[in-house]
Amino acid sequence: MSFRAFSNMTSRQVGRVLSHASMLRAFSSWIDIRYATPDPDVPSFEELTASIQEAEPCPVDAALSLRRMWSLGTRPVVDMLAVLESRGVRVLGLPSEDREVDAFSFWHEDRPFVFINTAKSAERLRFDLAHELGHLCMHRDTRTNRNRKYELDANTFASTFLMPADGLAPQLVGSPSLQDVMHLKAHWRVSATAMVRRLHQLKRISDWQYRSWMIDLSEQGFRSSEPNGIPKEQSALLRQVLALAREDGWGAERISKELGIPKRDFGEAFMGLTVTPVIAGVAALSPSIAPPSTDRPRLRAVQ
Predict the structure, then answer these.
(1) How far is Cα 262 from Cα 251, in angstroms, rounded to an integer?
(2) Number of H helices and number of E strands within the chain?
(3) Domain ranges within the chain, ordered by starting residue
(4) Which end of the chain has a smaller Cβ tally under 10 Å, C or N?
(5) Which helix (H) or strand (E) holds 103?
(6) pLDDT mean across residues, the chain
(7) Are the C-beta atoms of 117 and 99 separated by less than 8 Å?
(8) For residue 183, how far is the Cα from the chain centroid?
(9) How many CA atoms lie within 13 A of 4 on its CB side?
(10) Average pLDDT for 224-246
C-alpha cells in the first residue's frame, strides 16, 4: 500500500484508514458480483517500458508510454477520474477525520484501488490521481512507505502524464511569465504551482524564477486553494452503480447493512465523488459539474 505523507500519520490513523479501505473493498467485490464494470487495465512498469533496459523505473518513460498505450496523445487529459475508472481503477473517498492524508493506493486481487481526499481542489485531486497511478504502474510489488525517492518518482510521473513536454512545449514562446502560467494551468487543468514546477523541470524558467513565483503564488493563496479553479470531476461509475442498485432494490442503507459497513463510512466513500447524496445525513458535495464525456464507462447488470 502506498501512503503519501505516511511518516506524519499516527498508528491510530493508519489503523482507521486501513479499516475504511478494507470495508470498501467488500463493496467493490459486491459491485463485481452484480454488475459488469471495466476490467483492470493498468500495465506494470515492465509492460510500459519493455524496450528500455534500466535497473530502476524511469517515471518519465513510464508516463509517456502509458499515454501512448491509452491513446491520449499529447493533449490535456479532460477527465482524469473518468480515465482511471474506464481502466478498472476503483476510486473512493477518505473519511472526513483523516483529511490530512493526501491519498493512497494499492492492488487487491488484481484490482487497483485509489483513495483520495475529496476536500482538496479539483486540480490537486487530478494530480493525486496521476500520482497514485504512477505508484500502481511503477511500484506494484514494492514497499514504498517512508521512502522519499518513490514519492518523487510518482510526482515526476504525474507531472509528465498530465503535462507532457511535447504538448506543452509548442505553447511556450520565449520566456514565460507568471501570467502565462495562469493560462497554461487552465488549459492543462492543473494547479498553478504544479505548472510552475513543470516549467522548472523542463528548464524553461530559472531557479530564481521558480522560487520567486512560488512565493508570489503562496501570497495569493495558491498554496492552500486554487482561485478560479475548475469544477471537481465526478464518478460516472459510482453514479451508475448506485442507480442500477436502486432499480434492483438495493438502496445505500441496505447495502451498508448487508456488508456490515457503518453508514457514515459508506456515505463518506462517495463524498465529493457523486452528485446525489448517498445516505440521508451524509450529504455529498454539490459542485457544478461539466456534462459527462462520452468515454466514461458504461455499466450493465450481470445476468
Answers:
(1) 14
(2) 13, 6
(3) 2-164+231-301
(4) C
(5) strand 103-108
(6) 84
(7) yes
(8) 23
(9) 27
(10) 91
